[in-house]
Amino acid sequence: MARASDYGAFMEKFLLKPDTPSHELPLHGLTFAVKDIFDVDGYVTGFGNPDWARTHSAATSTAPAVLAVLKGGATCIGKTVMDEMAYSINGENAHYGTPTNPCAPDRVPGGSSSGSAVAVGATLVDFSLGTDTGGSVRVPASYCGILGFRPSHGVVSTEGVTPMAQSFDTVGWFAKDPVILNRVGRMLLQFPHSTLAKPGQIIIAKDCFQLSSIPDERTSQVLVKSVEKLFGGHLVQHLNLGNYVEDKVPSLQHFISKEIRDQEYKIPSLAALSSAMRLLQRYEFKSNHGEWVSSVKPHLGPGISERVWEAVRTTDENVDLVQSLKVELRAALTTLLQDSGILAIPTVPGHPPKLQTDASTLEVFRARAFSLLSISGVSGFCQVNIPLGKHDNLPVSISLLAKHGSDGFLLNIVESLYDTLKEQVESIGN
């Protein structure tokens, strides 16, 4: 395969066409790609690792999420590269190569849905499917300068998708165009297009934006000005989210260690949230794949190997506490946002890291990233990454969150805001 021509995004190419092509279908004429974590009848689901592919048979059915977009009239052109066992947000694969970030070729594309994001970013397909457990749609969307949607937990079927950690696994999708993002969402969420909605309030999590190395005028201020222009400035509120979460989520105290309190670069309550999420993620990963890892002893790339074996050695200590935490956080954020509120945070804490960044530098960045990513991860809220052009010639983005089950509303908000955000970005320049 000519890797250069497809940015290294694809594992294999094939054609899956809709059963009944029709101009009336919402996705007619659109092409898409799927992450190599989705079952496609007749193909081995590789899960990002050659030893996994070698020890598993071809799928005998196709994942419902893939069938849903085929039914919408779209054509699948192949499977995309992913991080091994979905256990990274970087996008580097030691076996199959790292897909080239079309926005910044010397930077990582973001994982674990790296190939799916790159395929959209490089305009090889109109949209693509990925999965998001800890951040695997939101991060690559941010790094590749495209839209990426993580739905509310449990609203899109994960049947026929290799599990990573069920308490957090979601099927997400990427697009460059907000109209396409919305149409794909309608097929996956299985409800019709509704009229564009207006937010009741937009809450800017000011402490979260302080975690980011990108200046406010290129992120939150772009959003504020766009909201003022479209809906009126009275909708905008500012909040210290870390304090709110610490106050309203009592179970969090079990996870706020002295070490977390002492680290300057963190928001303690959100760092604790991230710590709790990763604990349950490790435990569920072990339940799903520990036996296979222990018996096959797969060859795993750097970083992934350490995380996978750490998960295999994990215990069920404090797992029940994380489940309580999930319930409390969802309730607290539902109270905050009510029916039509939107929470704005940075998707990631800065520019995409350079390829082959050393592990210690990356760890600080990852810790900050997971503080942000765990908000919707633990609450189960829907979240969308929206690109905001470039700063220092590197992609910049912002994320909007809405309460669990408000996916259609959030997709509509993106569609209504998108052009105004773009105008604001253009008025600033790079």
Automatic annotation (TrEMBL):
GO MF entries: hydrolase activity, acting on carbon-nitrogen (but not peptide) bonds, in linear amides
SUPFAM superfamilies attached to this UniProt entry: Amidase signature (AS) enzymes (SSF75304)
Signal peptide, first to last residue: none
Pfam families linked to this entry: Amidase (PF01425)
Coiled coil: none
Stored InterPro entries: Amidase_CS (IPR020556), Amidase_dom (IPR023631), AS_sf (IPR036928)
Annotated Amidase domain residues: 23-177
Highest rank taxon of the organism: Eukaryota
Similarity comment text for this entry: Belongs to the amidase family.
Protein name: Amidase 1
Source organism of this protein record: Turnera subulata
Gene that produces this protein: AMI1
